[in-house]
Design brief:
Blueprint (H helix, E strand, L loop, with lengths): L7 H17 L6 E5 L17 H11 L29 E12 L4 E8 L5 E4 L2 E3 L6 H13 L1 E17 L4 E16 L13 E6 L3 H4 L3 H17 L1
Parallel strand pairs: 2-7
Antiparallel strand pairs: 1-6, 2-5, 3-4, 3-8, 6-7
Helix pairs in contact: 2-5
Bound molecules: 8-OXO-2'-deoxyguanosine-5'-triphosphate.
Length: about 230
């Protein structure tokens, strides 16, 4: 049973917030857009946290001072001439929406996947994928976690939406990814069920070690936010 449903109103609010946020600061990547409100959802998973994590979280939280949004001035007069089609700023912008999350086993470990980036580096990521037509973000998270890791999970909490920008061959993509917490209810760790064969490996990692292993700062932030949420509810 899903303990926390993100309603269409929540998703609309997230996306409206994203649009406003981007309008204020279009060049800032990896910005956290939305965090579910404390008390809005019920955490059903029992996830062991190491005793020193609370102190670490408080210290990290104290250091986290968001800076005001700044729009860098666009220098028109003195930049070298370049072909418009090669300037990423001139490419059309599209939005993409994905969902995924932290799937916990009974020992409090989280399943993550390895894949190779376009530049050939191995990167460790949270499982996620595109929200298909007619799917709720929760359904997407369950499906993608299952496809990419082999683990069947149920959603137990909503964590946050992150956004980032990347440039494709003919467009700039503004991507929003909603992350949930899931509890394993079946399956076994494997990447053989991934239809895109994007995931090359899947491993269990202790929740407290995610910060050391995940490649992207905003995915590390998802783990940090969820640890803080659990800590506040303890
Ligand atoms: N997975 C992931 N990719 C990121 C993050 N931040 C960031 O700039 N990127 C970059 C890496 C890639 O060059 C680019 C696209 O990666 P992606 O994982 O969103 O792309 P995908 O097509 O596999 O997406 P999906 O189907 O799994 O949702 O975005 C992040 O937090 N997570």
């Amino acid at each position: 049973m899903v303990g926390s449903m993100v309603t269409p109103a929540d998703v609309a609010r997230m996306h409206a917030h994203a649009a406003t946020s981007h309008a204020q600061n279009p060049d800032e990547p990896d910005k956290l857009l939305y965090t579910s409100q404390a008390g809005e959802t019920e955490v059903k998973a029992t996830i062991p946290l190491p005793s020193d994590l609370a102190a670490r979280l408080r210290a990290e939280e104290a250091q986290h001072n968001p800076t005001p949004a700044m729009m860098p001035p666009r220098r028109m007069g003195d930049r070298p001439a370049k072909f418009a089609s090669l300037d990423a700023q001139d490419l059309p912008v599209v939005r993409e929406y994905s969902a995924g999350g932290l799937v916990f086993d009974e020992h409090g470990r989280v399943a993550i996947i390895a894949r190779h980036s376009r530049s050939g580096h191995l990167e460790w990521c949270l499982p996620k994928g595109h929200i298909e037509k007619g799917e709720t973000p929760q359904q997407t998270a369950v499906r993608e976690v299952h496809e990419e890791t082999g683990i069947l999970g149920e959603v137990v909490d909503s964590i946050a939406t992150i956004d980032y920008w990347f440039t494709g061959t003919s467009q700039r993509v503004h991507k929003l990814v909603h992350h949930f917490a899931l509890r394993q209810i079946g399956g076994e760790l494997t990447v053989d069920g991934d239809p895109d064969h994007e995931a090359e490996d899947a491993i269990w990692v202790d929740f407290a070690d995610l910060d050391d292993v995940l490649s992207y700062p905003n995915e590390r932030k998802i783990a940090w936010l969820y640890a803080r949420k659990l800590n506040r509810q303890a």
